[in-house]
Design goal:
Helices cover about 20% and strands about 30% of the residues. By secondary structure, it is α+β, with helices and mostly antiparallel strands.
């Protein structure tokens, strides 16, 4: 009888130890699971504040919602950004829509024009191949096209009317651009090249060599 009691006690004690060990092990697994997810990924996937750059030329981040404000940096195609909270659209010069971002750097980016605000889209893990054109602008009188003969490799959009200024974006040969209203031909600021520049608003804000453009058809 005493031997049976001692055996039952031993079995009960073993069961308690096994349960306790299993609980600790499960708790460790739960803790590991909660810390394995990168905090940056959680922050970026919060609601629709996570956006992706959908323009093939990327986007320029400005200090203020204006193409004339200082440039803080550039975003590449498909790069994720985080919108400032609360999100709001800001009407900028020439009717362009801007919005504020907080990641990967704080500043303002242009989303497009009202009715065609397609520069940023909701994060989806990838937006595929860049579209060949920013959209059909041919009905706009300010539309111009990069001449395939004059610029078979495309052209560079600069921050100012000079080949020495920062590169803002690139436009492929045959693609369309949109001139600023009341545009003017601007001689090269450094007088190093005998070329004229013209300011554009799409697909990126900046300056482009006027000799590479022809009328849209």
């Amino acid at each position: 009888m005493n031997q049976n009691r001692r055996r039952n006690k031993s079995l009960a004690l073993f069961a308690l130890v096994a349960i306790a060990f299993g609980s600790v092990k499960d708790a460790g697994a739960i803790a590991t699971g909660t810390t394995a997810r990168p905090p940056l990924q959680i922050a970026q996937n919060f609601g629709n504040l996570c956006q992706q750059v959908a323009t093939p030329q990327g986007l320029t981040v400005h200090e203020r919602p204006s193409p004339n404000s200082p440039i803080l940096g550039n975003l590449t195609f498909n790069q994720q950004v985080t919108l400032a909270e609360p999100f709001r659209n800001i009407r900028g010069p020439a009717g362009r829509t801007w919005t504020q971002i907080t990641f990967p750097l704080a500043g303002y980016v242009a989303r497009g024009f009202p009715g065609n605000e397609t520069a940023l889209i909701n994060c989806s893990g990838g937006v595929g191949t860049p579209p060949p054109n920013p959209g059909d602008l041919s009905r706009n009188p300010l539309c111009r096209r990069v001449d395939r003969s004059a610029a078979p490799r495309g052209v560079v959009v600069r921050a100012s009317a000079s080949t020495n200024s920062a590169r803002v974006a690139g436009v492929s040969s045959g693609n369309q651009v949109l001139l600023v209203p009341n545009y003017q031909l601007i001689p090269d600021l450094d007088n190093r090249e005998r070329r004229n520049w013209v300011q554009i608003t799409a697909p990126a804000s900046g300056f482009i060599s006027a000799g590479t453009l022809v009328m849209c058809r």
